[in-house]
Amino acid sequence: MDAATVLSGASYAGSQLLAQVAFAGVFLATLLYVVSSRARYYIKFSVYAVWCMLAATLPIPLMLPWPGDHRNAYIPAWLCRVVSRLIGLSWTVRGQENIVKNSGAVMLINHQSSLDLTILAILWPLVGRCTVISKREIFYIWPFGLASYLWGTLFIDRKDRSAATKSVNDTARAINDKHAKLCMFPEGTRHCGPELLPFKKGAFHVAITHQCPIQPIVVSRYHFLDCKAKKFSADGGIRSLYCSPFFIKSFINLATVKIKFVKGCIVKIFGR
Question: Among 54, 186, 72, 189, which residue's Cα sits nearest to residue 131?
């Protein structure tokens, strides 16, 4: 028996072993998915995370000619909606007639989970020119950070407040110049609890400085998700409501009437 035959046999045996291991892994994952709610939680999030990473990064060659263009996110957004359906999510959108069309706006969204990527994937093709703000550390998660940059994500350094404010204000000028929509999570961080976290003031500063409308996008509580118990139930219904836009004239209004209005509006839907 010559060396080529031996190598061919070894290669075949190796491929057979890999196929058997892969089959065993899929079988075990399927079994755990069926019998364990905790395993189902981790499997769904793992599938969601891997798919979204691939959805964001595989189209990068198509994005490179147009860096910073919001339309670069159309394909990743569509693929994100596909995987959301696969893991059991469904959604209804109300108030589309309230979407600001003839000017830019600051869009505020309550922040609950990494599943909020689905909310962005839903609204992206609806609102037109759009961008989001993210912490700078996300940019260094390559290649996802590169993809985020290519579709126009604004990365800010939370530790350097003056630089972060300048970056936000520079980008916010596009709200007036190009009728762009700046999507922000006013709570600043995600959480699964029934209560809202205190609002950060950055979004309101942008709206006051540039005199552009604020549009709350209210997302219902993820009742199907229990982060503490690690449960992800089959009924993944999400409701989102595009509320009527409004203006803030001064920082006095910011500290009193307007924050209460926005929080009251969100709590009304969020707590249901």
Answer: 72
Full residue range of the structural domain in which residue 14 is found: 1-35
pLDDT tens, position by position, 131-187? 888 778 888 888 889 999 999 888 877 676 676 667 666 666 767 777 888 888 888
Owner of token pair 């709206």: 207
Using CA atoms, how far residue 246 sits from 79, 257, 261, in Å, is 33, 12, 10
Q: How does pLDDT run across 86-99, given as a tens digit for each residue?
A: 999 999 888 888 88
Strand-pairing partners, residue 131, are 182
Tokens of 153: 């994500």
Q: Tell me, what DSSP letter sits at residue 135?
A: E
Whether residue 173 sits in one domain with residue 74 = yes
Question: Looking up tokens 């509006």, which residue turns up?
Answer: 265
Alpha-carbon gap, residue 32 to 132, rounded angstroms: 37
For residues 103 and 181, the answer to whether their CB atoms sit within 8 Å is no
Q: What is the pTM of this model?
A: 0.81
